[in-house]
Amino acid sequence: MRQTSDVDGLSVEGLVVKYGGLVAVDGQNLTAPRGRITGLIGPNGAGKTTTFNACTGMVKPAAGKVRLLGEDITGLAPHVRALKGMGRTFQRMELYDTLTVRENVVLGKEAGMAGGNPFRHLRATRSQTVQLRRVAAGAMEMCGISGLAARRPANLSTGQRRLVELARCIAGEYPLMLLDEPSSGLDGAETEEFGRILKSLVAERGVGILIVEHDMALVMSICDYIHVLDFGKPIFEGSPREVATSKLVRAAYLGSEADGMAKFENDEERARV
Ligand code: ATP
After folding, report:
1. Which residue ranges form the domains of the chain, and what is each CATH number?
2. 49 touches ligand 1 (CB under 6 Å)
3. Could you say which of 39, 138, 148, 213 would form a disulfide bridge with 223 (CB–CB 3.0 to 4.6 Å)?
4. Which of the listed residues 17, 26, 48, 50 should we mutate to test ligand 1's pocket, taking the one with most ligand atoms within 8 A of CB?
């Protein structure tokens, strides 16, 4: 068996998180390697956000290890994890509405370049400025929002704002990106477009993505591998096909979000005919 410390990406081993007497996550193991999209799903309250927050350093685990590119990062602060290569987006978007889209995206790269030195946050060198603009332009192009560069996020649709947030994370050039319910607030067409961008991001840049997501159709269409949690415990893992056909997973969802899984199965069936 492959050691999780060898994983070229993110690995979580024996994760336990407690809120007082409540064990929110109980023995989670997962890997999210580079060059792949890994999904983390489960019914409401299953412990997805808690696992995500333990990975990003927002909550402290009672037990277990989180490793990034083989390095133990369990005790590190969120900003240190970012400097080591972990980017993230938020379910509630955190964009600066007084800045333009381009300036928001530039921040994704600038924060990493300046690091912990406050003086370097005040002034960038000329070559750094050129590099910042180039990286931001590439990220905006990848997300199809180059035409919005001079606009302010406040005046954009939710779908466009999600793409700005994604572009900012891409600009950080992280080898590993964690996305927390990125389809939240998007309509069907916007969600499909978002999924296409994520797939090309992985294919072209080889980043690894861990995605926590309720939209089962999106998860099934973009993930290479999926981990399923229920009541804080890992209950299943496998390919989208294996997850979609698992009786255990369907029972956990009690039909609530199983529609997206059924659609995946039907689409696959049609594609084979
Ligand atoms: P959802 O899909 O509804 O967002 P989830 O799978 O992300 O759910 P979590 O939010 O991780 O699940 O919650 C796991 C359990 O921990 C739930 O029982 C929840 O009520 C509890 N919980 C989450 N955050 C806290 C907190 N800060 N304090 C106490 N209990 C919490």
Report:
1. 4-272 (3.40.50.300)
2. yes
3. 39
4. 50
Say what percent of the chain tops pLDDT 90. Answer: 68
Quick one: tokens of 10? 């993110």
Predicted TM-score (pTM) above 0.85: yes
Phi, psi of 264 (to 5 degrees): -60, -45
**170 with 134: CB under 8 angstroms?**
no
**Residue the block writes with tokens 């590993």:** 176
Residues in the chain, total: 273
| Residue nearest atom 17 of ligand 1, based on CA coordinates | 45
The answer to whether the CB of 45 is under 6 A from ligand 1 is yes
Does ligand 1 come within 6 angstroms of the Cβ of 58?
no
β-pair type (233-238, 63-68): unpaired
Q: Any bridge partners for residue 180, and if so which?
A: 212
- Token pair of 256 as six digits: 């609530």
Locus of tokens 């991001």: 201
Distance (Å, whole) CA 55 – CA 137: 29
Helix (H) or strand (E) holding 163: helix 158-171
Q: For 219, what's the count of Cα atoms within 13 Å in the CB-facing half-sphere? A: 33
Nearest CA to ligand 1 atom 29: 19
Query: Is the C-beta atom of 22 inside 6 A of ligand 1?
Result: yes
Rounded-to-integer distance, Cα 105 and Cα 171, Å: 7
64-114 pLDDT tens trace: 999 999 999 999 999 899 999 999 887 777 789 999 999 999 988 876 655
